[in-house]
Amino acid sequence: MEKRTLLAFFLSFLVLMVWMALFAPKQNQRLPQRTTSGKTAPEKVPENTGTPVGPGPAEARGTAKQVPEQPVKVDEKTVTVTTPLYRAVFSNAGPTIKSFELKKYRQTIKKDSPLIQLVHLGPNPVDFMRMDFLAGSFGAGGTTICRVDKDTIRLKPGSAPENLVFRSLTPEGLSIVRTFRFYPNQYKIDMNMTVINASGKPVRGAFTAQIHALRPKGKQRYYSFTGLAILINGKLETIKIKKPSDEKVFKGRINWLAFEDDYFISAIVPEITTPGTFKGHLLPSGLLEGTFATPPVSLHPSQQISTLYTLYLGPRDLGILKKVGKDLSKAVDFGWFDIIAKALLYVLLFFNKFINNYGVSIILLTVLIKVLFWPLTHKSYKSMKEMQKIQPIMAKIREKYKDDKQKMNMEMMALYKTYKVNPMSGCLPMLIQLPVFFALYRLLGNSIELRHAPFMLWIKDLSAPDRLFTFPFSIPFMSPPYGIPVLTLLMGVSMFVQQKMTPTPGDPAQAKIMMLMPVIFTFMFINFPSGLVLYWLVNNILSIGQQYRILKTSA
Question: How far, rounded to the nearest angstrom, does the alpha carbon of residue 207 sit from its chain's CA centroid?
Answer without folding.
Answer: 29
